[in-house]
């Protein structure tokens, strides 16, 4: 029986996928074999030695100590694309909120309560304070053309916008999914120089922190409108407030409120609603559950953020799954440990991802897991 610990409420459509004869789903377990999480902070958590995997029901994994997990042989999964449509739809709303002062106008309209027949006249007199612009014919610059950015690019084309996209890691599949009218540039400065709207759709890490800052803002058109439905830290808070107050940025729409941007005119702060739809939560829960079951039962890794994707069918007596550092000569040590026991390797898969690797061996005979585990650089061994 495998214990699956849920740190947040996970949609039942996902947890119900687990076979109750094999899995126990619980929100109270000291030593689970796997964890399902959404936004709970895990950096200060102590992980038991038997923890095999963590599945994040969502795309971002900043709440998980990913590298520490890798060093302990814990595979961390996310669910890329599962919430892409939900975020795309809110980003479309963000384009309109960046163009029209809808929130301010709605709030003002509420103050007219109690004026009876005069409300209509007051509306006509006051509405000029909330004028905006249209998006048709404007240029949208997208930094990131993955699951969300690509969808938004295509919708923006359909809405009559010109679209420029920048993504140094653009996959072939993502490129093929773009409408032909989307211009892809290899120079991010072309985004800054030519865009009326800039929308961020890139992961947050040390390299992307403060992508939008006083220097990049200086490259932008006066009156540029910026959308951030990716991560709050991609935009320098103090610099964006200064740019909005000066008029350099006409409007900033962000799905990640922070103290410095709250209460500032022309900053629309949304309380992280990007993936907050029933459909998105269901999609993420289902994908996370399937990832855990595939790994626990079959050794298959899909959508891991710290180990490479890999799978191998078991045709022999055992499937040996080894998580290890990506260093020279280690694979030969693993295969030697298997053959020294008299087992025969029928098939093998080895994949690497930066400094970590995953080797799967389809073996006839008995595999000596302890001998493999003793190899320097090996952080996890399972025999299925």
CATH topology of the largest domain: Rossmann fold
Strand order of the largest sheet: 8-7-6-9-10-11-12
CATH structural class of the largest domain: Alpha Beta
Per CATH, the architecture of the largest domain is 3-Layer(aba) Sandwich
Assembly classification:
single chain
Order of helices and strands: EHEEEHEHHHEHEHEHEHEHEEHEHEEHE
The portion of residues assigned to helices is 25-40%
Assigned CATH superfamily of the largest domain = NAD(P)-binding Rossmann-like Domain
Written description of the protein model:
The protein is of the alpha/beta class. The protein has three domains: 1-83 and 276-306, NAD(P)-binding Rossmann-like Domain (Rossmann fold); 84-269, NAD(P)-binding Rossmann-like Domain (Rossmann fold), CATH 3.40.50; 312-384, Alpha-Beta Plaits (2-Layer Sandwich). It is 31% helix and 22% strand. It has 13 helices and 16 strands. A seven-stranded parallel beta sheet has the order 8-7-6-9-10-11-12, with helices on both faces. It has a five-stranded parallel beta sheet with strand order 2-1-3-4-5. The protein has a four-stranded antiparallel beta sheet with strand order 14-15-13-16. Strand 10, helix 10 and strand 11 form a beta-alpha-beta unit. Helix 3 crosses helix 6. The chain is elongated, with a radius of gyration of 25 Å.
């Amino acid at each position: 029986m495998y214990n699956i610990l849920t740190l947040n409420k996970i949609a039942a459509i996902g947890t119900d996928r687990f076979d109750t004869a094999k899995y126990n789903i619980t929100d109270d377990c000291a030593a689970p074999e796997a964890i399902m999480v959404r936004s709970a902070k895990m950096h200060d958590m102590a992980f038991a030695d038997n923890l095999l995997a963590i599945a994040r029901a969502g795309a971002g994994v900043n709440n998980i100590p990913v590298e520490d997990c890798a060093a302990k042989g814990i595979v961390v999964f996310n669910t890329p694309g599962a919430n892409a449509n939900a975020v795309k739809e809110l980003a479309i709303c963000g384009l309109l909120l960046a163009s029209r002062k809808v929130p301010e106008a709605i709030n003002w309209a509420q103050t007219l309560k109690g004026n009876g027949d005069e409300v209509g006249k007051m509306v006509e007199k006051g509405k000029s304070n909330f004028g905006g612009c249209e998006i048709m014919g404007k240029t949208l610059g997208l930094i990131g053309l993955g699951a969300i950015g690509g969808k938004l690019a295509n919708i923006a084309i359909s809405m009559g916008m010109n679209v420029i996209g920048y993504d140094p890691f653009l996959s072939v599949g993502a490129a093929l999914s773009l409408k032909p009218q989307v211009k892809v540039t290899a120079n991010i400065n072309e985004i800054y120089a030519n865009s009326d709207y800039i929308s961020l759709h890139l992961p947050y890490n040390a390299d992307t922190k403060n992508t939008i800052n006083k220097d990049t803002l200086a490259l932008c058109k006066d009156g540029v409108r910026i959308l951030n439905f990716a991560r709050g830290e991609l935009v320098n808070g103090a610099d964006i407030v200064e740019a909005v107050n000066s008029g350099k940025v006409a409007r900033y729409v962000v799905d990640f409120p922070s103290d410095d941007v709250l209460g500032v005119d022309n900053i629309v702060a949304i309380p992280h609603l990007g993936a907050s739809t029933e459909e998105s939560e269901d999609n993420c829960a289902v994908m996370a559950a399937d990832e855990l079951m595939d790994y626990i039962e079959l050794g298959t890794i899909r959508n891991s953020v710290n180990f490479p994707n890999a799978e191998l069918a078991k045709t022999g007596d055992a499937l040996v799954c080894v998580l290890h550092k990506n260093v020279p000569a280690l694979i030969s040590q693993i295969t030697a440990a298997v053959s020294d026991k008299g087992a025969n390797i029928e098939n093998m898969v080895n994949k690497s991802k930066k400094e970590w690797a995953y080797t799967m061996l389809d073996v006839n005979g008995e595999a000596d897991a302890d001998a493999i585990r003793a190899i320097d650089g090996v952080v996890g061994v399972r025999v299925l």
